[in-house]
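anyone seen this seq b4? input:
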Amino acid sequence: MSADRKAELAASLAQVEERIAAACKAAGRDRDEVRLLAVTKTFPALDAALLTDLGAFDLAENRDQEAGAKAEEVAALRPDARVRWHMVGSLQRNKARSVVRWADEVQSVDSERLADALAKATRSALDSGQRDHPLDVLIQVSLDDDPKRGGFRVNEVGRLAERIGHVGDLRLRGLMAVAPLGIDPAEAFEKLARASERLREDHPNARELSAGMSNDLEQAIAHGSTCVRVGTALLGGRGLASP
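predicted toks r here
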């Protein structure tokens, strides 16, 4: 059964890689400029382990409760795999201590209070030996100012970036966003690219631009995305979460 599933994932991964390579070529970019994040939410740990067998080591989750257990299970299944876990979903401050135990990067920082909570939790984890490196973070940007979708207002990104820089134990890597429904993705990603350019004026190391998913990764790459987050095109329809 796992052999069949591995073959399915290998075929899907090859197709996604072809799309990324074609999009990079069309944009005049090198393929190495774009990282593929495999979004394994709702899929079992075995799928994540099989992806690492295929060379996909950047894995993403959007719920702390599911992710923590899954990260432990994958570590047991593939103890030698160099997995890097990313939190890409909405995150409440009271989950900060839990998230820093498994996440190498949080892409969904959308408030100063969350940044403070993550910095405090990271410092505690470093002091206790639960972590051996600071936490990488991205600011989640709202491209339509809809509070229900999460994200920080574009015109206030600089303020949150300064806060992250001052709290310590967090490393600002860049911006993340989701193209809003009902808006041309290309238009949304162009807005995000401009915000990224402004951010790098004061934070030159914040070069990550996480944008583009299964349905719009080509448009995102055309506008400078350095990280595409792919779930459905890679793993298929909604799966069953790990216990």
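The chain has nine helices and nine strands. The two ends are 19 Å apart (CA to CA). kinda curious what u guys think
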